[in-house]
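[job 4471] stage=fold_predict status=RUNNING
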Amino acid sequence: MSVNPPIKPPRRKLAAPRTQLDRSNWIESAIDVLAREGVAGLRVEVLAKRCGVTKGSFYWHFKDRQDLLAAVLEHWREGRIRDIEKITTVSPGHERDQLHFAIEVYGASRNRKGMSIELAMRDWARHDPQAAAVVEAVDLYRLECTRKLFVAAGMSDAEAKSRSLLLYACVFGLSLMHYAHFDNHLDDLKQRIAERIVSA
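[job 4471] inference complete, writing C-alpha cells
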C-alpha cells in the first residue's frame, strides 16, 4: 500500500518591507520635485506617491506642507553656505586660482541639477517672502566670500565688491541663456571671460 507524501502547507508570501522614510528623505525628494516642477509641484499627495508611502508618514515628520517648505529652504541655505565656504577656502597666494575654480564650478554644464534647483529657488523667491529672504541671505554670503578672495588677491574693497557681483551675474546669467552656437570654441570663450573677471 502506497503512502502519499505529506502535503506541505502553502508557503506564506513574506510581506514586502515597508519603506521607512526619515525627515531628510522627504526633504531630498521634495528638492528633486522642486527642481523639475517648481514649488507648485510640492504637494503632500504627490510626494507620498513618489516615495511609495502614505500621507500618514509625511505627517509623522512634518506638521503640514508649510513645515516641509520651511525645511526645504533651510536645507538649501545650509547646503549652499557649506558649498561656497568649501569653494572659497584657499591658502594665501592662490586666491586667483580659487576664483577661477569658483567660476568653473558655478558655470559648469555638468551641474545641471544644481542649476535647476537654483533657478527653482529663485522663481519661488519671486512669489514668497520667506523664500526671498533665504535666497537673499545665500546671495549675500556668496558675494561676501568671493569679495574676501578678491581683497586677498590685492584688490580694493570697492573693486572686490564689483568683481564679486560681476562673477555671479555672469555665471547665473549664462545659466539662463542659450548660446551654444554663438562661438565654435566655447571653452576658450568662457576662459577669456573668467580671466577678465579675475585679472587685476
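[job 4471] summary: Residues 73-198 form one domain.
[job 4471] exit 0
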